[in-house]
Protein: DNA-binding NarL/FixJ family response regulator
Organism: Allostreptomyces psammosilenae
Amino acid sequence: MIPVLLADDQTLVRAGFRSILDGEDDITVVAEAADGEQAVRLTRELRPAVVLMDIRMPGTDGLEATRRIVADERLAGVRVIILTTFDLDDYVYGALRAGASGFLVKDTEPMELIHGVRVVARGDALLAPAITRRLIAEFAGRADRPVPGPRLNALTDREREVLTLVATGLSNDEIAERLVLSPATAKTHVSRIMTKLDVRDRAGLVVLAYESGLVTPGWLGRGEEP
């Protein structure tokens, strides 16, 4: 079973998500939170696999709650999906920087919600290629010019190549096809990159790839090939 915690200040939104998720054989909603403070407390108590976190809540918002959850070493296995009303909410990129594993728009289709929970629960990022490009082009471009740091020095040339493709939102299978590798080899490369860079998941790799200067928002925004 995939235990899920719902954090949203709107009761009807939580009820709607619960009815969808609890209808699946492999997913169960273990608790609901009406604000970020409660979400953090319940996450520490229950250790859900996935937290569906509304970005805008009174008091402690979803961004701060996500930051606290990700920073807690005891919650290393917990993944956060940000819920937002708009697909380019100003807070979304900040949430990814804070360690969220992806995001969903609140009016997403039920099957997309279910798929998203399953994807994040198995350790992947919920970032489609088009969304990845738009997010980074829109918001990362507002940040300071990236300054190359020493973190990427630990990577081999092949691993840098794989990281660049991860940053475009490609799946392991797509990376394997692009580089003429087996899917298992591509997955191994991604896992090693996460370990070397001390990153929780693919969403973190996307953010790091931009902030390290490996990719730039203009390039991703144009959708050019790497």
The domain at 146-212 is CATH 1.10.10.10 (Arc Repressor Mutant, subunit A). The longest helix spans residues 183-197.
